[in-house]
Amino acid sequence: MATAAADGANLVTRLLDATNAHDLERLVDCFTEGYVNHTPAHPARGFTGRDQVRRNWARIFASVPDLAARVLATAPAPDGIWTEWEMSGRRPDGTDHLMRGVIIFEIDTQEHRARAARFFLEPVDHEQLDADTAVREILAGP
């Protein structure tokens, strides 16, 4: 019987390989048809379904043609796997693309795919704000 931890490790390998190969169909195949993406820091960005996964990644691959992903760390979770990612590349206009963060996957052990994720991957902020200034700006609001 498959376990969420074993399936999670396998999923991360498949997802990383598909991302670095820019293989859209293999990447989309890592997710269940009813996949749910929760984006706690940006709730309106959450979505359900493989079709949105396909649209997002088609755009990412087109917008960052040399995209490279790395998994920096993983840890098993009761129903899946915690992962820390870095994705980098260069956009067609020459600007750098760099995202880092955590994705916590819930695994469907029957399908061996991600059924849900809590997505915390964000563009790296290159502002030179120290901690005091950043906290002050966050608390000041819009």
Secondary structure layout:
Elements: H1 4-21, H2 24-28, E1 31-38, E2 47-48, H3 50-63, E3 68-77, E4 80-90, E5 96-108, E6 113-119, E7 122-123, H4 131-140
Parallel strand pairs: 1-6
Antiparallel strand pairs: 1-2, 3-4, 4-5, 5-6, 5-7
What does the model show?
With 142 residues, this protein is an alpha+beta fold. It has one domain (4-140): Nuclear Transport Factor 2, Chain: A. The chain has 4 helices and 7 strands, in the order ααββαβββββα. It has helices at 4-21, 24-28, 50-63, 131-140; strands at 31-38, 47-48, 68-77, 80-90, 96-108, 113-119, 122-123. Strands 1, 2, 3, 4, 5, 6 and 7 form a 7-stranded mixed beta sheet that branches. The chain is globular.
Quick rundown:
This protein is of the alpha+beta class. It has helices at 4-21, 24-28, 50-63, 131-140; strands spanning 31-38, 47-48, 68-77, 80-90, 96-108, 113-119, 122-123. The protein has a single domain (4-140), classed as Nuclear Transport Factor 2, Chain: A (Roll).
